[in-house]
Design goal:
Order of helices and strands: HEEEEEEEEEEEEEHHEEEEEEEEEEEH
Shape: globular
Number of helices: 4
Radius of gyration: 31 Å
Number of strands: 24
Helix content: under 10%
């Protein structure tokens, strides 16, 4: 099926204006050189290696009552011809863990990831078959994104070339997204868009029709913090109320929805109620998980010099080759001293010189103090992925992310060349209510930076956005949770209960009646 692709233009060229025509007066030359100084946008940097990691939602990776599970697949799937679970050969192209710049990985509880296959797509990274209420925690990654970022201005424009498919109930209904684009404005608002396509099925399964491709919002964003090494942000959800979400349930304190045009599209695929709260307790399953983006920003261009190497004299010259004296000369060959002379032939130094041939040292760049943040979002639910971003740490160093006071290792990360990392961890669902600490610890158990966390009796997680690095108690008895490795670490999503709307075969019958058409 033909789809419409959307791409950003190639990175903008930086042009430096040249100097001006030389003139007789030195002041005019200097002014002309100043006109040809700095580039148009020296703070903006090109990126060519941006990676975007996202689980979409817990529901998109959950066990299902029919077809085994809901799952993510790399690439744009072909037309299966009917509303039926996928097989190993239908559709074609069908299930794939990688396609071009897109890949799918399942995290393991003890660290690392596994690559799913068609046969294992409904199993966790550790090989356990998912059931309704559990999830594979599958992570989608798009690599090789290109564009520009301006950390000082807080803006970003990045595009990825590639697609992925989201299938529910083993493939009874599925849709695809191609060539996502991220745009972040200076006020911290942003959007992630893509060209989507898919298929609509009748309520009795007797018909199957392609949908018209269109561009929609996969996520709308608020309070985006653009840094020189990456972005971690939780998409808008709470309080979003699309007009087409006809069964929106607001009884949950965390009720919400995916973007309106996205829900409009899902009304045609038959998945609409799986992208907003339609039940009283399904917000944790359906709301979008945090998006993590990592990149290396190219160095900004060096501006041209602002002053010329030489200038035209500003006074009338004396005879050629003989400079005009500015004061009454002393005896020929003997300069008049301005202070008490030192030994003959040795001029008095104006400052204490450094070693011969050694330039006077200048102040080096300031290394930022270690810091840890959650990207502006401070309220979560146990089991959710909590985005973490650290800066000011030693480069290329491994750290453990540990929840205290009873130590539980939530993950491991490696800092990049700038001493930063961006990742996500999950607060275990069985974490007791009370005060806790998320600490980034070195190999000897020393906490280098940390955040205070409060877990309430109803499972709400509140993170204090201010660094609280102190002597955090560590111990040998550490429980190992999910682990994420790498400078653009993939989110580890706890296997918490995923709300499923219906029970048993009744859910499947109700689902089949709901596919594409809403009564």
């Amino acid at each position: 099926m033909e789809t419409t692709r959307m791409h950003l233009s190639s990175p903008r060229a930086r042009r430096l204006a040249a100097g001006a025509t030389a003139v007789a007066v030195g002041a005019t030359i200097a002014a002309a050189a100043a006109l040809g100084a700095a580039p148009a946008n020296a703070a903006s940097a090109d990126v060519t290696d941006a990676s975007l990691s996202w689980s979409l939602s817990n529901e998109a990776n959950a066990g299902a009552y029919f077809g085994g599970c809901n799952f993510l697949s790399a690439g744009v799937a072909g037309n299966s011809g009917a509303s039926a679970p996928w097989t190993a050969t239908n559709p074609s192209p069908g299930y794939a863990a990688s396609a071009g710049n897109v890949s799918i990985a399942y995290p393991k509880a003890a660290g690392g990831t596994s690559t799913p296959t068609f046969a294992t797509k409904c199993q966790t990274g550790d090989g356990a078959t998912v059931r309704p209420g559990t999830t594979t925690a599958g992570v989608l990654t798009l690599a090789a994104g290109t564009g520009t970022v301006d950390a000082a201005a807080g803006t970003a424009d990045i595009a990825w070339d590639g697609g992925f498919t989201v299938a529910f109930y083993g493939g009874l209904t599925y849709w695809s997204a191609e060539d996502p684009e991220l745009h972040v404005a200076a006020d911290g608002t942003g959007e992630l868009t893509a060209t989507v396509s898919g298929y609509a099925a009748s309520r009795d399964g007797g018909s199957w029709a392609p949908l018209t491709p269109r561009t929609v919002h996969l996520a709308t964003l608020t309070d985006v913090d653009v840094t020189s090494s990456g972005i971690t942000v939780s998409p808008d959800w709470q309080g979003v109320e699309p007009a087409s979400a006809t069964s929106l349930n607001k009884t949950n304190a965390d009720w919400g929805s995916w973007p309106a045009d996205f829900v409009d599209f899902q009304n045609e695929t038959g998945q609409s109620s799986y992208w907003y709260t339609s039940g009283a307790n399904d917000a944790a399953a359906k709301k979008p998980q945090p998006i993590s983006i990592a990149y290396t920003a190219a160095e900004a261009p060096t501006p041209e010099p602002t002053t010329p190497v030489t200038t035209e004299p500003t006074t009338e010259p004396s005879e050629p080759g003989t400079p005009e004296p500015t004061t009454e000369p002393s005896e020929p060959g003997t300069p008049e001293p301005t202070t008490e002379p030192s030994e003959p032939g040795t001029p008095e130094p104006t400052t204490v010189p450094s070693e011969p041939g050694t330039p006077e040292p200048t102040t080096g760049p300031t290394t930022p103090a270690p810091s840890l943040s959650t990207g502006g979002t401070t309220t979560f639910t146990v089991g959710d992925s909590v985005p973490l971003r650290a800066e000011g740490l030693p480069a290329a160093t491994e750290y453990s992310i540990v929840l205290h006071s009873d130590p539980v290792v939530l993950g491991k990360v490696n800092t990049d060349a700038d001493g930063a990392f961006a990742t996500s961890v999950a607060i275990p669902a069985d974490t007791p209510a009370g005060a806790h600490t998320i600490a980034v610890e070195s190999s000897d158990g020393t906490a280098v930076v940390s955040l205070a966390v409060t877990v309430t009796a109803d499972g709400t997680v509140v993170v204090d956005p201010v660094d609280t690095t102190t002597a955090v108690t560590t111990g040998a008895a550490v429980n190992t949770g999910g682990t994420v490795s790498g400078t653009s670490a993939l989110p580890w999503i706890g296997l918490s209960a995923v709300g499923v709307v219906a029970l048993g075969s009744v859910a499947f019958i109700a689902y089949r009646r709901r596919v594409t058409q809403q009564d």
